[in-house]
Design a protein that fits this description.
With 213 residues, this protein is α/β, with parallel strands linked by helices. This is Histidine phosphatase family protein.
Length: 213
């Protein structure tokens, strides 16, 4: 099947650089609402069987214009939620961000047992995201849009899909550079396949993986 993994639009906490991973989470900013509205045109001519959102309201707000335009009721899957920040929740300083993103780096290097701010492990995140993707597959949909979150999409696709350069993601998570594998608000990754045989990334923000965007 084909799944469009969409990072939610900008939120008011994104503007203030506040880690916000617990429900209900912040609302979209004015720019975020514009990004959400822009998805209607981005999907012009694209067939969709279903639309999914996480348990954080910013994903529902992002999906709303597209869902209304298609007459599709979004389905909530908690497994699509952002990686829980644990003790770093609500932080906005540089050390907090480096702690959060540095933990994802460790997961990408294979240390899935490391805990995020004393909370979830990388294995935990993969298990519940796999379950969400499995639910989408089991729905019988051939094409689906899933509005999710930046770190969760980047981590899961690196671990579960071919066509992504995990080293580039690691560099981005270290805040040293901003390579192509980090989705900005309102951008999307397109994957094809299934959990049994594996997924591959066919597009990252509108271009094949590895190309300039």
């Amino acid at each position: 099947m084909r799944i469009y993994l969409i990072r939610h639009g900008q939120t008011t906490n994104n503007v203030r650089r506040i880690l916000d991973s617990n429900p209900p989470g912040a609302h979209l900013s004015d720019l975020g609402r514009e990004q959400a509205a822009g998805l209607v045109g981005a999907f012009d001519g694209v067939h969709l069987d279903a639309i999914y959102v996480s348990s954080l309201r910013r994903t529902g707000e992002t999906a709303e214009p597209l869902a209304l335009s298609r007459g599709i009721d979004p389905v909530e899957l908690d497994g699509l939620r952002e990686i829980e920040a644990g003790s770093w929740e609500g932080g906005s300083d540089e050390s907090t961000y480096r702690g959060y993103l540095g933990t994802v780096q460790q997961w990408l290097s294979g240390r899935l047992e490391e805990r995020m701010g004393g909370g979830v492990t990388g294995a935990d995140v993969l298990e519940r995201y796999d379950a969400a993707i499995g639910s989408i597959e089991a729905s019988g949909a051939h094409t689906a849009a899933a509005v999710s979150h930046g770190a969760a999409i980047g981590f899961w696709t690196c671990m579960r899909a071919s066509g992504i350069d995990s080293r580039a993601v690691e560099r981005a998570l270290n805040l040293d550079v901003a390579p192509l594998q980090v989705l900005k608000n309102g951008q999307m990754c397109v994957i094809e396949g299934d959990l049994a045989s594996g997924y591959r990334v066919v597009s990252w923000n509108g271009a094949p993986p590895g190309e300039s965007r």
